[in-house]
Amino acid sequence: MYALILRIASPFHAKAKDWVEGRRHLWNALPDVSGKEVFWFHCASLGEFDQGLPVMNLLRERDPDAFILVTFFSPSGYNHYQKRKNPVDFACYIPLDTKKNAARFVSHFQPKAAFFIKYEFWGNHIAGLKSSGARLYSVSTSLRASQHYFKWYGRYFRNILRQFDHFFAQNQSTMDLLKSIGIDNVLLTGDTRFDRVIENKRALVKNERILDFIGESKSVFIAGSSWPKDEEILSELIQSDRFEKYIIAPHNVEKAHIDALIDRLKMSVTRYSEEGAINSHVLVIDTIGQLASAYSYASIAYVGGGFSGNLHNILEPAVFGLPVIFGPKFSRFPEAQSFIGEGIGFSVSTASELMATIDALLADREAVSLKSTRFVEQNQGASEKIIRFVFG
What we know:
Blueprint: H1 2-9, H2 14-24, H3 26-29, E1 38-43, H4 46-62, E2 67-72, H5 75-78, E3 90-93, H6 99-109, E4 113-117, H7 123-132, E5 135-141, H8 155-161, E6 166-169, H9 172-180, E7 186-188, H10 193-202, H11 208-214, E8 220-226, H12 228-238, E9 245-250, H13 255-265, E10 270-271, E11 282-284, H14 291-294, E12 300-303, H15 315-318, E13 324-326, H16 334-342, E14 345-347, H17 351-378, H18 382-391
């Protein structure tokens, strides 16, 4: 039914169209992997790909001949993963989760091991992997008590979890939840995204376009992966004189949204994609792939998605020592609660709360910056723990 709905929607919705078209010729595009050891990483989208990438990189270092297969559920992952330096040998959409599709896909690749990232649990593919004898791991597992695995009606879903050889949990609460349903094959490793943002920082390349925009300015505010509700409360700040320069990198970079954002600001704005000199105080990044490096040029960050419950990656700015502000709906993201507890993350609900938080941070930014950098560095190493456990 889900596939049918997407097919009906595909003429009118770009992502639905990508979802359908990406799977249309899937079977004819599969490569010949005979004689190769295949390691399968499944990621819902680009964020989960970033979580899996440090493990893939370590696997490649350990076994240069390994064949690394990556599947995505979402077009936003499949369409943009190439913008990351990666060791992937083949990437495609995961087939719709039917018994027939799963059996065919697993039979073709015969993976030696499969790594499902965060909370990706597709029952038929998991059963097919288990039947094939592949080792099955869940990486950076993050679960919540409200999920169906832990409800009275969740027996079928609990049985899916019990197929895994091992879980590498992000946090103690996930470990406790798994143990509450009789799953003890769990190792508390932490979140591999800490390793990923440290990799990004070490591989940072200068962005001349952003450097031209900043010039001699010492005070730069950045809003990353912003949604309309975020932009609504940010507009008052951007029109103030608290910072010399403002960078906005919206989650949606389609022209219609960028145009609406610029209209909302009612001031001179430069688009990142434009050529020529920059003579405004606001730069809108209207392309994909620039945000992680853009954080390195700012002093305080706002990360979007916190008004819809889809908070984006707050580790990306933190690795550069930035205090991080976000919206009020972050219960699904344990790292956000950790940031608040450490005094490096701050939740706001209104424009006035945002302004008050920034005023307080401007008076104490250096101390918060040190805590932020130290927190990220102290939580690295999850990927190494996983590789050591899997391969000895």
